Amino acid sequence: MNRYLTDQLLALVDAFQAIKPFTDVTLSKYAADDSRFVPSLRTYSVAVSGVRYDKVVAWFAANAPEGMKWPPGVTRPTRKGSRDLFRPSREKRRARA
Length: 97
Prior knowledge:
Blueprint: H1 2-19, H2 24-32, H3 37-42, H4 50-63, H5 90-96
């Protein structure tokens, strides 16, 4: 299962980078808030939890550049079905208040 999730994330990374030439490190910082995330995916040296997978996929769904072709086999979340994934964390909500 973990390899399957990793392959899906790598398909999203490659599709995104085909349109916007971000480095793996830069894209990692934006999508996962961890500069080592994508390089670790490429070497299959990181375990991807379901929660982390959902958050990263939600980031790609919300930030996909115009013209990006969503990879086949990767389910694109919708705002209605992924309400919590698009909400800021509790700490960020408190900081705004």
